Amino acid sequence: MSNPVYLALDVPQLEAGKALVEKLKAHIGGVKLGLEFFCAHGHHGVHEIAHCGLPIFLDLKLHDIPNTVAGAMQSIHVLEPAIVTVHASGGRAMMEDAKAAAAEHTKVVAVTMLTSLDERDLKRTGVDGSAHDQVMRLADLAQEAGLDGIVCSGQEVGTVHKQWKDGFFVVPGLRPTGSSIGDQKRVVTPRQARNDGASVLVIGRPISKADDPVAAARAIEATL
Length: 224
Ligand SMILES: O=c1ccn([C@@H]2O[C@H](COP(=O)(O)O)[C@@H](O)[C@H]2O)c(=O)[nH]1
Description:
Elements: E1 5-8, H1 14-24, E2 30-33, H2 35-50, E3 56-62, H3 66-75, E4 83-87, H4 92-101, E5 107-111, H5 119-124, H6 131-144, E6 149-151, H7 157-163, E7 168-171, H8 190-195, E8 200-203, H9 205-208, H10 213-223
Parallel strand pairs: 1-2, 1-8, 2-3, 3-4, 4-5, 5-6, 6-7, 7-8
Helix pairs in contact: 1-2, 3-4
The structure holds ligand LLZGTKA7.
Residues 8, 10, 34, 59, 111, 114-115, 151, 172-173, 184, 202-206 line the site of ligand LLZGTKA7.
């Protein structure tokens, strides 16, 4: 079974990012490049990281009108990402067009409710009800739109998995027992998320900011 851990490479310096991936590549299953990395280094940076030979997850969280998102998807074909994210709240037509425009082997997954939000935050955006209901509602929409899966927290993945058996579930907001939480609010351990049906475990700071990133990655691997 391949390693489900994708390292969230949220670093502004390309050389430091490349060095970290080289050190960790035997202990991770892929690399997630998000907005910080992509805005700083663009296509060139993605090619540089892809040299490590691991699958690349482009976490661009696209959210715009359908035509614009489809155009963005076409512009990243050349990067051959294994996974790309869009926001489910962009609506069904946007997700359908994103999937239609994606490269054949790219999984398109929809961000439901960011793991840095809780129910109080949700209410402030005008949405009443639980985080769980919000995630389930947007998971249904993503499935209807023909996407491959969703991004949700480990607190919801078990329920979504029961309902969407062959879905592909990306779970960030993971913290090994005892590690600090930072800005994440809906948090579980990597082991729990995996038990509950996560396909990909996204882990950033618990590895990248550790005194010894290789030891941190190995310790997480040993719990899975
Ligand atoms: O709901 C979401 C969607 C994406 N993310 C991304 O995952 C990593 C998590 O990093 P940590 O350092 O392990 O907290 C980060 O790149 C986020 O942009 C998320 O956290 N939650």
